[in-house]
UniProtKB/TrEMBL annotation:
It is an enzyme of class 7 (translocase). Residues 13-247 form the ABC transporter domain. The lineage of its organism: Bacteria, Bacillati, Actinomycetota, Actinomycetes, Micrococcales. It comes from Microbacterium pseudoresistens. It is a peripheral membrane protein. It is found in: Cell membrane. Pfam families: ABC_tran. This is ABC-type polar-amino-acid transporter.
Amino acid sequence: MSADLIDIQAPAIQTRGLVKSFGDNEVLSGIDLTVQAGEVVCIIGPSGSGKSTLLRSVNLLEEPTGGSILIEGIDITDPETDIDRVRTRIGMVFQSFNLFPHMTVLGNLAIAQRRVKKRPKGEAERVAREMLDRVGLAEKADAYPSHLSGGQQQRVAIARALCMNPDMMLFDEPTSALDPELVGEVLQVMRSLADEGMTMLVVTHEMGFAREVGSRLIFMDGGNIVEEGDPHEVLSNPQHQRTKDFLSRVL
Ligand code: ADP
Ligand code: MG
């Protein structure tokens, strides 16, 4: 299918038998994951279980060793697919915010829009202000990143991703680098995105968020999805010993 035709019936994200190895190290061992539009899927699991590699594979920051990945029905592992076109539909937020220190918040939000979306300056800044308002930072447009708290910087990074009008957002431990008192404001922004119907795939250690906001919870270990289901069910009544062991350590 052409990258111009979005199949609205198709899942937002679908991986089929996704395998990723680094040399002899198989990090993803055949992941079958389907995320429907509007779902908020949270992923938990021990360090090294492949969570980041899975997220990075979804927009081909990592090239799969095997299997396929479909974004809105488009096979992005097909060499014919224009991956850059598909990537603009996927917003990504990492643990580190990676804002340009020499640019204001507004500048940080405008630059990718101008480069990737070819938006004129005025339009890019209008969108930037709209998205800053969405994350509660309208008054910080002219501030430099170093003058913001970590929580504010991460909210700017979320606004930057939203400026590209993504159909879905991937979050990789977005609050793990933050001081505890700053975690809540970032989770609040993520919660409001979820309430607005954004499709989200979230790697997190925040079990409260996973329980209250997640439509589904996935537990990964050793490159496999060990268990998945309703977050309340998985957290209160895990079925697998590995899930029980993990939860007993983190809850
Ligand atoms: P998690 O996010 O669950 O902590 P990762 O996906 O980051 O796990 O890592 C899973 C495994 O893949 C780890 O053993 C890690 O060392 C390995 N790995 C990740 N990225 C690379 C890379 N670029 N090169 C080699 N090994 C990697
Ligand atoms: Mg990780």
